Amino acid sequence: MRCCLAAFIVLAASLAAASPAEAALKLCNRTSYILYAATATVTNSGAATHGWTRIAPGDCETALPGKLRTQSYLVYARSALAASGPGRAWGGDIAFCVRDGAFTLPQKAVGGACTGDAFSAAFASLDTHGRPDWTMTFDDDPRLASLQDAQLAGAKRLLKDNGYAIAAIDAKPDKTTGAALSDFRKKMKFADRDGNEKLFKALESEAATHGAPPEGLTVCNDTRSDAIAALGQSVGGDFISRGWWRMAAGACARAITTPLKDDAVWLAVQKPGGAALVTGPDQFCVAAQEFEIKARGNCPARGYTAAGFARVAVRGKSGVLIHVDAKGLAVPQAEISK
Predict the structure, then answer these.
(1) Rounded to 5 degrees, what are φ and ψ at 211?
(2) How far apart (Å, rounded) are the C-alpha atoms in residues 316 and 264?
(3) Which of 46, 192, 248, 305 is spaced 20 to 30 A from 281 at the CA atom?
(4) pLDDT in tens, 101-111
């Protein structure tokens, strides 16, 4: 599914199916969304979750390499944050803990309490029929006929998220979509041989800066290295600080998952070695490990460290998406109180 696209109009005819020969658990995306999938493995000695596997529309990716040997596998997937509208999820009713960014998370039991920056996701059991190699497919509703159709519909959805006038998210080629794709490729300065993988990554990245953010507060790490984020809030007349949310390079973390109700939040972001990416004059207490600290004064006397946080005006918005790059907060200066 990684051929070059000279024109969107000929997309469906230009695809070649990929069928890796090695034994593995492979996940295919027959939806119009970019998906991020997590897997869970269960054995007699315990369980572990792994994530995230990014799967572009119409593509297949290896989630777990090697022969399948454990007793039980489970899967969960969610739509990319860049997608417009409410988030979509594919799963079941079996709770496991996951994290934002790349992770492997050992767990003692199904349905156990998630701690720190981990949160619960509802996985679905996957019957591999005892085979060493298995491929499963995520489907949309209404169901798309093929992976090729999913790729076409997915490109349309992301073009629309980037502001292009796409009439319908379907698998029917049309001149308007072809023109939109050509314009986007020109805008991104793609070479003629740049293929679908680069196209979907660019569409997703650009859509994340233009689309409506999900409810709550999402922080995206646009640097080339891992980063950790801490959050300060005013709750019930008092202040509280929480952290750390770990973000791999290019990944995002949902620090608040419910609609925002306040006028402002406070944010601190650091590199793994402790160098500040986002800081400010407002002091909150932090700890070296995962923490939730009430009140913001007398930090050293209470065994904590005082850190500078940047005040970010959210102005009662239900959802805010914040990007952090090597220079700090990549949001309009009017939104930051210094």
Answers:
(1) -75, 165
(2) 8
(3) 248
(4) 788 999 876 66
CA separation for the pair 105, 94 (Å, rounded): 16
CA 168 from chain centre, in angstroms, equals 25
Alpha-carbon distance values, 231 to 184, 242, 305, 338 (Å): 36, 5, 14, 16
In this predicted structure, what is the pLDDT of residue 18?
Answer: 38
Instruction: Select the more confidently predicted residue: 149 or 226.
Output: 149
Distance CA 167, CA 150 (A): 16
Say if CB 312 and CB 329 are below 8 A apart: yes
Beta-strand (E) ranges in 34-108?
Answer: 35-43, 46-55, 60-65, 72-79, 89-90, 94-98, 103-107
CA 122 to chain centre: 16
State how far the Cα of 160 lies from the Cα of 178, in Å rounded to an integer. Answer: 12
Integer distance in angstroms from the first to the last C-alpha of the chain? 47
By C-alpha distance, which of 32, 35, 56, 36 is closest to 154? 32
Q: Scanning the structure block, which residue is given the tokens 């796409």?
A: 166
Closest CA to 103 of 52, 53, 63: 52
Nearest-angstrom CA–CA distance, 277 and 325: 8
Determine if residue 316 is left, alpha or beta; phi over 0 gives left, psi from -120 to 50 gives alpha, anything else beta: left
